[in-house]
Structure prediction request, 340 residues.
Amino acid sequence: MEPLSFFSQARVLIVTGKGGTGKTTVSGVMANLAATAGLRVVVVQVATASDRLQPETANLSRLFGSDRALAYDEMALRVGQADGEVRARALRPDTALVEYLHLHGLRRISRRLVNTGALDVVATAVPGMPDMLVLGKVKQMERAAAAGLARAPELILLDAPAAGHAVRFLQSPHGLLEAASGGPVRAQAEEVVEMLSDPARCQVVLVTTPEETPVSETVETAQLLEDRAGTKLCAVVVNGRLPVLPLPGGLGVDDLRRLAAGAGVTLGAGDAASLSAAGRLRLLRQEAQAAQVARLAEELPLPQLELPFCFSADLGPEQLEALTGALRKAVASWEPVELP
Ligand SMILES: Nc1ncnc2c1ncn2[C@@H]1O[C@H](COP(=O)(O)OP(=O)(O)OP(=O)(O)O)[C@@H](O)[C@H]1O
Ligand SMILES: [Mg+2]
Prediction:
């Protein structure tokens, strides 16, 4: 499938997965690929209620060669190229509330909330409210995208909270729908639930590494998301797969020294022993990853998109290009799966 068709499946792609599996990286790589296909993309990083006071990290910016932390206002990550654009912003419940109040003619109330320091308390007082405020803002962006407004993004990638939180995050509007019998909160919840349940507007991309615990958690999250949030699952990204090296098993120290000598290299016994141990370890890890990828395919009937592990301490523009190329290839052989 062409990248443009892949990213035209839904206007909002929610990227979630176990903590540290690469949600932010995958959001950046997807945004970059979509931009090469000519789309105007915004990556929205969600700060949940519990981490709302921490400054947003610059992980995503670094991928695009910048050090600036994300803020509420959109920041350009990739602009001025012949094709598409990538911008990014961080959404927090309190700032989403201020904007909501402004839009509904309640500017004075919002100013007082900010001045008295009560903003946080109000934005997070009702369970589920912080998530709803953030999703409400995303829904507003999605509506602007659907209407084709000038400067509106064509694709929104939501770098969502980690899997455990994501289920609650996407379930919150459903909960508020049951709790509020009328008024603006109910109206907002209804509109958000409508977006989450419409696959043309919103789908979920799960991210996992090819390891036992993340794979198990991904399978569990997929079931919970479908059952409780009613949001369509689009694909699972298997991030950090080791490139498969054709390593012959069982190469001992003497074999290695002989092979090296054949190539004109003299290998000391110590080096040969280290090399042999490294080879064995790599082989074991490759096999373990392959087993987890197979288990994931068996337990979760979703198309898989594989991204390789990058041997680099920090991921920057060079790794972004490599990962974007890998995703392009994976998407090319991607086929939607109709879940029963
Ligand atoms: N394919 C990859 N190859 C090598 N390193 C990677 C890869 N993907 C992610 N990383 C590294 O792994 C770490 C975690 O990645 P990332 O921040 O994208 O994960 P996350 O799921 O967003 O984490 P969190 O749950 O903390 O938000 C980062 O240091 C990132 O640079
Ligand atoms: Mg992250």
User: Anything to note?
Assistant: The pocket of adenosine-5'-triphosphate (ligand 1) is lined by residues 19-25, 59, 162, 239-240, 307, 309-310, 315 (CB under 6 Å). Residues 3-246+301-332 form a domain with the Rossmann fold fold (CATH 3.40.50.300). The beta strands are 12-17, 40-46, 75-78, 85-91, 155-159, 202-208, 232-241, 304-308.
